[in-house]
Amino acid sequence: MDDIKAKALALDSKISQSDRILIIASTPVDYDCMGTALTIKWYIKQKYNKESTIYLFANVLDSAKKFPGYEGNINQKHPDKVDFASYDLVILEDGNALRQFFTAKFEQYSALVSKENLWSIDHHEAGPIGEYIPEHTIRLKDSCTSKIFYDLFIKDSGLEITTEVATWLYMSLTGDTGIFKFEIYKDTFSYAQMLLEKGVDHYKAVEFTVTKEMMDFTAWAIQNTTYYSDAQCSVLAIDNKVRETLTETFGKNWENNSLSKYYENIFLHMVEGFPYGLIFKEGKDDGKTRVSWRCSALSIVEVMPVLRRVGFVANGHRNAGGGIIDKPVAEAVAMFIKEMEALNQDSKTLYTNL
Ligand SMILES: [Mn+2]
Q: What is the 66 CA–ligand 1 centroid distance (Å)?
């Protein structure tokens, strides 16, 4: 913790010395990366009276663009259009891999920022960024990245957060905890209480509805899920043939609309006996397979190391994350399931029975 505080002080002093500051929000875009970016920008303005720029290099859903403060503050860019070397401070927030900030061509783009000028704030498991810039990585296990920023930078700064800032922080928190379902720590509720006292409207902040299309997709996905009992996994596998069916049913844009989000929220790891839920999807043109997973907080096996063992590059939290492998879907699923079955044979069960 002292080490973390020392790093926070060092970043604060870097902010005070910098004139061109860039904040990059992580991919996939969510309330936490947006709320954190806006809060950092607000802090830099309030404390140092300096402007800063927020970029993200990812698809942003229309629903995400409704995040308060998005318009006019958060800019969707192509990294080719950014003069990375012209910034004297670049802050990466809410992700542990360079790929989440600098796209698949992260080696090319991240090389344009000197390590001296690159900082990271994050609440995920340890990842490549921690190895790349260990002295500049502020990483703690907590509910969301914006809370880490609040605790280390704002809380004792004397700055008074407005209702708008509190709303960003609250939406970050409720977004990343699934409205207080997971990633709960001893101080999560006192923090939420403090934000409510700043005037946050809870119901507005957590308002969430699903489009009919997303609900239809959810029904399709549940029906097309495969259950692997011995591996205690449920798997939705989307290869290029399935993709064609989906395009016929839901139109060309089904992928950009992130139709699987609601399936992820309500289904993955919820079926008794299947505490590990995964979606494997083959890339349209590259033949690579992407995976995303959710598992029960009572699960015993950590999915990320298992995925890495079978060849995935995987990142995220213990109980939710994503990865990629240069293999077709069927092969990737088979390798993963085999590994999980072997673990189950050793331990008889892969989760804590209540
Ligand atoms: Mn987060």
A: 18
Question: In terms of domains, do 328 and 224 share one?
Answer: yes
pLDDT in tens, 219-235: 999 999 999 999 999 99
Residue 120 pLDDT greater than 70, yes or no:
yes
Q: What pLDDT does 353 receive?
A: 61
* Ligand 1 centroid – CA 176 distance (Å): 6
**How far away, in angstroms, is 348 Cα from ligand 1 center?**
33
To which H or E segment does residue 216 belong?
A: helix 212-223
Q: Are 223 and 242 in contact (CB under 8 A)?
A: no
* Residue 278 sits in the same domain as residue 201: no
Looking at the structure of the chain, the number of domains it has is: 2
Distance of CA 32 from the midpoint of ligand 1 (Å): 5
pLDDT beyond 80 at 147: yes
User: 145 and 248 share a domain?
Assistant: no
Is the pLDDT at 349 greater than 90? The verdict is: no
CA neighbor of 279 nearest in space, from 291, 269, 267 = 291
What is the distance between the alpha carbons of residues 54 and 126, in angstroms, rounded to a whole number? Answer: 24
**Is the separation of the CB atoms in 170 and 195 below 8 Å?**
yes
**pLDDT at 1 > cutoff 60:** no
Q: Which residues pair with 323 in a beta bridge?
A: 291, 314
- Centre of ligand 1 from the C-alpha of residue 83, in Å: 27
Confidence of residue 347 (pLDDT cuts 50, 70, 90): confident
d(CA 123, ligand 1 centre) in Å: 6
